[in-house]
Design brief:
Helix content is 0%, strand content 20%. With 170 residues, it is mostly beta strands. The protein has three domains: 42 residues, no CATH class; 69 residues, Immunoglobulin-like (Sandwich), CATH 2.60.40.4270; 57 residues, no CATH class.
Length: 170
Amino acid sequence: GAGAEIVSPYVDRANALPHMTERTDFFGNPLSGRTPSIGAHNPYAVTFDSNGGSEVAMKFADMGGTIPEPTAPTKENTVFGGWFQDAGLNDAWDFVADPVTRDIELYAKWVEDAGKAPTITTNSLADGKVGQPYSAVLTTDGDKPIKWAVVDGQLPSGLSLDEDEGVITG
């Protein structure tokens, strides 16, 4: 009958957004002088493999477009190190500059959390007596493991520091 001719409206492969045809929109409505650019709106799926971290939702991008960086995932005892184009985590993804030209998967990089920096909580050491064995334990509030060392000056002659236990003996 009379009215617009529908020419193969379809939904893209990811069911993300409807496409228009040359003569009608997705719902069969005439374009009324609008000139769609067929194929220019071709959304690609960007999926995120968080490598054991919290889930990150899929995003869609027009061909050649960019996507905003998602909220960083979280993973216990680690720090998020960015998104990468390869599972080997060699090629970082730049959300501002890298265009999406196909369906892609980005991979999360994780860096072991260094933990809380230690603060020595031992305020003073007991006095030693000549000819008597000496032992003092150093304490800290930082995360383990800690390696103890004398970084300025040196211990008195006859004393040594156990770098793993933080014990001064002699």
